[in-house]
Write the C-alpha cells for this entry.
Amino acid sequence: MSSMLDLAILGFLHEEPMHGYDLRVRIARLSGHVKAVSHGTLYPAIKRLETAALLTREAQPGAAAAPKHVLSLTEAGRAELQRNLREPAEPFITDENRWFVLLAFLRHLPDPEAQAAVLRRRLAFLGEPSSYFYDGDSPLRADDVDDPFRKGVLLIARATSRAELEWLGTTLDELTAAAEADRGEELTHAIHD
C-alpha cells in the first residue's frame, strides 16, 4: 500500500469503527488544504480496501430511510496497518505530506524500537543534502540568494528542518529509553519464570 488515503483510512478505523462521512471529515482535517478528500476519492478507496478484506461494512439503521454503513478494520486490516507503520514505503519517509500522515498513526505501532527505526530512517533522509539548498558541496546561505522567494524557501525549510531534527532527537531518546525498559522488564519476567 502506498497511498496516503489508504493509510489514513486504516489508521482512523484502527482507532474506532465509523461511518464513511465521519471518516471523510477526519481525513479532511488531517490532510487539510494539502489534499482534499472527495466522495469520488474516498468511497472507491473504501471499496478497494473492503474487497481486499482489510475492512468490513455493516449496515445500521439510519435516521432517515436509508441505512448507514459502519466501517471496521478486520484482523487483516490491522496487520496491514502494522506492516505499513513498521516498514513504510520510501515516499512516506521522504515526502513531507506522507510523512505527516505516517506520524499521525505511528503511535499504533506498539513497539518503541520499531517506532524509533522509522524515525531513524527520517533522520537519515534529513541528513542527505538537497541539491536545491546546496551549491556544489556547500550549503547555500539565505544571504547568498538574491531571489526573495527562493530566500524564503531556504529560511522556511531550514527553520522547519531544525525544529524537526530537535523533535526527532528528543523522541528517539525517549523511545530508546522505553525500549530498554521493555527489554529489562522482559528479562525480569524470564528470570522469574
